[in-house]
Amino acid sequence: MTKAPLRGMSVPDFVARYSFGTWRPQKGWKPMHVTKAEGVYFWEASGKRFLDMSAQLMCSNLGHQNEVVVEAICRQARELAFVAPGHATTIRAQLTEKLLDIVPDGLEKFFYATSGTEANECAIKMARLFTGKHKIIARYNGYHGSTATAMSLTGDYRRWFAEPIRSTIDGVLHAPECNPYRPVPFRSASDVIDYYDYMLKNEAHVAAIIVEPVVGTNGVLVPPDDYFPRLRALCDQHGVLLIADEVMSGWGRTGKWFAIQHWGVSPDILVTAKGVTSAMAPLGVVATTRKVADYFEDGWFAHGHTYESHPLTLAPAVAAIDEYRRLNLIARSAQMEPVFAAKLGALKDRHPSVGDVRGKGMFWALELVKDRASKEPFGTFKDKYARKPMVIDQVVAKLAEHGVSMIGWMSHLVLAPPLILTEGQLDDCVAALDEALKITDALAKG
């Protein structure tokens, strides 16, 4: 155990006492003391090793401590650690060139922020300035970040905490998400497009629709094949921008560089972060079409901050893109899709509490239900908001006992490991799930 830094406390106790834990009441927070991470594993201070099946926050796509990315950060620190964003740098040009080769067709100009949240703030501001309209349509069960604009876009319980203190913004409308497992009240998941059409016919001043192409923490919701072509056509029909939030679903996670590429659709604005540096430096990216970019030739680009285009965030992104290519991880993610489908599908066959298995590439969810017929979940947003004990937390704790770290959310588990995960390591995860799911099986209707 590492010696306590101050006041005779252990590291976890000191951290909990003097720094804030996010998205939680502070009482009872007992953070794990992580001392090492490498590849698909990380270690706590006791020496116990954990298989990282959610890549921390679905972001360490290359695995932990990738040596090429580490060296890129060190080299850039020695060459040019910082310069104000009004200057050009070689590393900024290099990253831009690489992005032009991999982003969806038609995206040609970039803004470099320091998080996905902040990138979404910028994207919304750009959409409003470009269109001269102020309303934004987002989706329920979407998550776009924690600052005022991004929180307003968010369609889950995390927004509820912010609303009474007016830390959200006006002009955001929410529409149903695309959920093939729970399409009610629609006949199918694609019918929600008709709802968008109805909204756009009855709302004026709509600037943009923002969506996660594959919804992340709220369920790894994969749309049917006609969803995005229809949404793209609808946006064009009504003169509304389409913004793709690829903070979580980008960077090989679904078997393409960006998830929206599965459906042959290009957005007007794409936002990404997380895997762009494999989370080894804080970088968010906003990519726009030339049409959007050209507005700001004479129109004022009313955005910016000190750490924009920070060299120490750009250098690891250049190295990360090279590593995705060298290791062939985009194709590998696609190749692992049927492996995940088979092994997780077999879990569903063995465990009556598994209501649905869904995913794309190496981005999967197991939805746990009390009853497959009714699809009743073990926990909801309202339960979490009311701070009720959550069954999913028991499942996650049991997985941890077996050396597997995985994010559990309301009533589902998110499997989004580093893209270097082997089939044998996936088998280790499945073995741990076989044990942990006994908890929900005991509570499920037979």
Cross-sheet strand order for the largest sheet:
4-10-9-8-7-5-6
Secondary-structure content class = alpha/beta
Main sheet: strands, sense, barrel: 7 strands, mixed
Q: Indicate the CATH topology of the largest domain.
A: Aspartate Aminotransferase, domain 2
Q: Would you report the number of β strands?
A: 16
- So, CATH architecture of the largest domain? 3-Layer(aba) Sandwich
Uncertain residue segments: none
Sheet-strand content, in percent, reads 15-25%
- Radius of gyration over alpha carbons? 22 Å
The number of helical segments is 16
Can you tell me the number of structural domains?
2
Q: Residue-averaged pLDDT, rounded?
A: 95
* Spatial separation of the terminal alpha carbons: 45 Å
The CATH superfamily of the largest domain appears as Type I PLP-dependent aspartate aminotransferase-like (Major domain)
CATH class (first level) name of the largest domain: Alpha Beta
Globular, elongated, flat, extended or rod-shaped: what is the shape?
A: globular
User: Helicity level, as a percent range?
Assistant: 25-40%
